[in-house]
Design goal:
The protein has helices at 16-27, 47-57, 73-83, 100-112, 130-146, 163-171, 179-186, 209-223, 226-256, 263-295; strands spanning 2-9, 33-40, 62-67, 88-91, 118-123, 155-162, 190-195, 303-307. It is α/β, with parallel strands linked by helices. The structure holds uridine-5'-diphosphate (UDP) and magnesium ion (MG).
Length: 311
């Protein structure tokens, strides 16, 4: 039996050696083989240099895939899955917020409970602020209402699964990758276990509010066509409102003889309808843009260097 740990790294120069040491420490005497598949996601610091050193030393089996530029964590996970050779595959961050010891527990669950194919960890105590927490909860309730797949709130990418799950994920070759959606879409029996995220060992997080917002939009557009229906509904509602207003104006003129009030109403209606139309075109544009990206059929990542180890 063999376990592959897939580790996406973007500017994690100070963390990679420490991460490897933690893995060796956690898996010494575990009784099965393991390998680490590091994916350098176009880092600008000494990450690749340090990974090459780890690969040369081979204190434990280490593979390195290096991207030609930053393609994002999702692309890194995809590349890692393509190069992982284990029977069990684990996705884990390089910053030691997620302890490798937990992966050992996950493998034990998969070994002892054959009814499960995936063990996913969720954060039991989050240290983030109330505002962010509110936005995250709103996102999950919106997407779970709109989409046919159900996303588990709080479940992270930190998970371990069987080879069959990895192969199913690899069949989804979409360019815009939203991994929470992909995990939900492929299905399989999943066991959720709580974990507490540690402090980042070194460096800073790559996420900020705007990146998270973009990621949320990515999820909604990628996993639901409901926003398109929204434009149809909006169109119907404004049409009905326009007819009602027309009838009201006629009654006003005939019954009370009030002249049609003009200027302000016209300006407001033009602005309102104009913005509704732009809004709807924007929504359609999001989908057309994604179709355009996908039809170009570009690879999800470009690897400039792949360092394998001798099996
Ligand atoms: N990461 C990556 N490419 C990116 C951004 C992040 O490979 O463009 C990696 C990063 O090196 C880390 C993991 O994804 O191993 C999670 O990133 P981070 O710690 O910044 O996210 P957080 O833990 O704050 O959610
Ligand atoms: Mg982190």
């Amino acid at each position: 039996m063999k376990l592959s740990l897939i580790v996406p790294c973007y500017n994690e120069a100070e963390n990679v050696a420490e991460f490897q040491a933690a893995v060796i420490n956690a898996f010494s005497g575990c009784g099965y083989d393991y390998e680490i598949v590091f994916v350098d996601d176009g880092s600008h610091d000494a990450t690749l240099h340090n990974l090459r050193k780890l690969h040369q030393k081979q204190e434990c089996p280490v593979k390195v895939i290096s991207f030609s530029r930053n393609f994002g964590k999702e692309a890194g996970l995809y590349a890692g899955l393509q190069h992982a050779s284990g029977d069990y595959i684990s996705l884990i961050d390089a910053d030691l917020q997620q302890r490798p010891e937990i992966v050992r527990d996950m493998v034990e669950i998969l070994e002892n409970e054959p009814q499960y194919d995936v063990v996913a960890a969720y954060q039991d105590r989050r240290s983030e602020g109330k505002v962010l927490s509110f936005f995250k909860q709103s996102f999950y309730s919106i997407i779970n209402k709109l989409s046919s797949v159900k996303l588990e709130p709080d479940a992270s990418d930190f998970r371990t699964f069987r080879r069959s799950v990895a192969e199913s994920i690899l069949k989804l070759g979409e360019y815009h990758r939203f991994s929470k959606g992909i995990f939900a879409w492929v299905g399989y029996e999943t066991k959720f276990i709580p974990y507490t995220a540690c402090e980042r060992a070194h460096g800073t997080t790559k996420w900020n509010f705007w990146k998270l917002l973009n990621y949320a939009i990515e999820g909604i557009i990628g996993y639901s066509t409901a926003p398109l229906r929204l434009s149809v509904i909006l169109g119907c509602v404004t049409a009905v409102a326009a007819v009602l207003y027309l009838l009201w104006t006629i009654v006003e003129k005939l019954v009370w003889g009030i002249a049609v009030p003009g200027y302000a109403t016209i300006i407001v209606l033009i602005l309102l309808l104009g913005s509704c139309q732009l809004f709807c075109i924007g929504i359609i544009g999001e989908y057309v843009g994604r179709t355009f990206e996908q039809t170009k059929d570009r690879p999800i990542y470009v690897a400039k260097e792949i360092l394998e180890y001798e099996q």
